[in-house]
Amino acid sequence: MKISFANPAVPKAGAVVVGVLEGRKLTESAQAVDDATGGAVMRAIKASTFKGSKNHSLTVMTPAGRLNRVVCVGLGKVKDLDALAFQTLGGRIVSNLKAHTATAQVLVDDVEGCPLSAPEIAAEMALGAKLGSYTFDKYKTKKKGHVGAKLTEVKLFCKTSAKAQALFAPQDKVADGVFFTRDLVSEPANVLYPETLANEAKTLTKMGIKVEVLSLAQMKRLGMGALIGVAQGSVHEPKLVVMHYTGKPVRGGAKADQPVAFVGKGVTFDSGGISIKPAAGMEDMKWDMGGAGVVIGLMKALAGRKAKVNAVGVVGLVENMPSGSAQRPGDIVTSMSGQTIEVLNTDAEGRLVLADALWYTKDRFNPHTMIDLATLTGAIMVALGTHYAGLFSNDDDFAWDLIKAGRDVGEKVWSLPLGPEYDKMINSSVADMQNIGERWGGSITAAQFLKRFVGDIKWAHLDIAGVTWSKEGKPTSPKGGTGFGVRLLDRWVKNTLEK
């Protein structure tokens, strides 16, 4: 969808969107449109229950020959207006008009008492509109919906529109990264498997990102027995993809030039292996590569907006299938670190993939900070539902920075504990560790398992099992893949590494 900006004007035709504050208080542009329509807007408001409350709207059909549709959107109370509120508003506008008009003309004003200026408001609304416009319908041969009109452009009118455009430009690139992640997560497993997902990552080379793909033979030479063990039941060979983004000059290996590293779990389909999952809901396991999808989308976002940071993204790609060659419960594998793992449950496979991916990243790149993302445990959804991701870290200040970044963009994370009392729960009597703990604290013991492959590097683990896919949808995140994590980590980079 096209997003454009223009200086203030009252359009003479088509559909226009104006804001109304709590208490039926018209914004400057809303008043101008009311005047242009002979008072039709205010008459309609007075005849309705619409009061300008947050998340409420009123559509006014105006006389022929003038604006044919005026959408009054409730801004609510001034004290509640912030960047996220305007992003949500942008998404709601798209939802309201997507079946009714080709172009939505949005009039944006300064709002007395609001900390954001009109250009800033317009940029945030534009971001929300773009995020809310996402669809994944490439496999539909018969498109449903309104015949004829389809929203293809949102045009925002505000003072100093060039400033709004400049503010939106980097946000637009981040949204592109979110869309890439949503696309990857939405693809079916017969289309997206380790080789084809690696090929998608390789498309980032055109943005200046260096992409390496390690083969099964290379991983065997490196001793990645944990990752390889997960993949051995599938006809699709595993891949390890390494993406390098250089956004600032590298100065001879100085500590200040150590990269930040993002590591993702990429299980392109998770049947559970020999410890097979129930049939009901197994189709959702096409998005068990959500962590890898976020890392790939994040790298696209950083390169797109030319972030001033050096970053590596590493994703371990496997398919977890049951077969005569599949890993069995009770098997013992040797990870790249040399630590041995007793596999008690083949459906606790993501941590095995990450064990080797994290160690490889630590060993090869010595990053100053390492963040991994994974749809790792169902237990995190028992704890947090589908509204927060679980956060585990070996550094409290770092964890707090991630929490703040998540709040900034509306991708919320909640910190959970780590500690020796949990670590001992994954000790094995026949190997260095086992891949599951006891019944309780499953998300914590999974994170504790990962911590054994991190060393002294500052590290955080995000369990995104509950937030990677949405069955309800929100104004800025329609049903399906959410892309949760791309904006969070991009904002963390901006807040902490690009100061």
From TrEMBL:
Pfam family, one: Peptidase_M17
Signal peptide limits: none
Binding site residues for Mn(2+) 2: 265, 270, 288, 349
InterPro entries: Leucine_aapep/pepB (IPR011356), Macro_dom-like (IPR043472), Peptidase_M17_C (IPR000819), Peptidase_M17_leu_NH2_pept (IPR023042), Peptidase_M17_N (IPR008283)
Listed cofactors: Mn(2+)
Top enzyme class: hydrolase
Claim: Iron-sulfur is one of the keywords in the record: no
Cellular-component GO terms for this entry: cytoplasm
Function field: Presumably involved in the processing and regular turnover of intracellular proteins. Catalyzes the removal of unsubstituted N-terminal amino acids from various peptides.
Name the record gives this protein: Probable cytosol aminopeptidase
Organism encoding this protein: Magnetovibrio blakemorei
Gene coding for it: pepA
